[in-house]
Amino acid sequence: MNDDNDPEVERERLLKELFSHAEPRPQPPASDTEEVRRAVLAEWEAVTGRKAMRKRGIYAAAAAAALASLVVVYLGDGSDPSAPAQLVARVEQVQGIVTTTDGARLSAGSGVLPGTEVASGDGQIGLRLASGGSLRIAAGSRVVFASSDEAELVAGALYFDSEGERSTEFAVTTELGRILDVGTQFLVRLDTEQLDVGVREGRVTLTRGATSGAAGVGERLVASQAAGDLRRDAIATFGDEWAWAERLAPPFDIDGRTLGEFLDWFEAQTGRTVVFADTAAERAARQAVLSGSIELPPLQKLSAVLALTDLEYSLDGERVVIRAR
To answer: How does DSSP classify residue 138?
Structure first.
């Protein structure tokens, strides 16, 4: 039998050719070599469908895609100390100029590694944490990312929203105490005089030395440099104090979504409660399907979205009242 016509021999030859052109990478343990080879071969067959291809370049591209996916999985499992560090967050949006303290400018899509310190300057930034949830950093702030589960607020303000996605708690450390979330949306401000933690949803705990306290929806905890105890006050869950964080709300693509879904997103991003003037308005809102694309902060986006329907709204304190025109 002629080996040149043997499919197994041809596959092995193509894989050897592919590996000969690959850049050097950290190698898996010798005991895993055969398993890795089989996995690449199986993925290559899945990608190509075992069909003969007329051009060697197409063969190599398909095999390269299989190899690339395997390398990402292997390097990402944490077993190889020489593997690249895993990202703790990725930038969703930036308003103005935001850099790391090393001078790197951040833009949408930028990855953040453990130990990175972000300095927002006159800008502000919204990030997606690798472990789930949204973290937003106000202007004039400095934040160090210890991991995807913990950040240090050195100065300024940040906002955290667990978005119900997380299986682990998120912690914010400061020189005046450590904040831990329990399925929460909360705002943290730190200046030279005090630490201020406001809760929009869920619950947080604040620990400062031997002293600790908890706050729920509509409450804030304040720790000052001068006093050792914690003060609990009331805080509105909407309005000017939260406005900067709302402007960094993660995008919501309205195309093909119902108005009801959009209103749920709006409530989560603004701390306001949507109510309907009557059952007809509610029925119309729940049934309406949206189309197009609108990129605006939540309150302005609400106006633009309702302009596509026969509905309108008015503000009544924390309530947003939807009614027919």
So the answer is: -
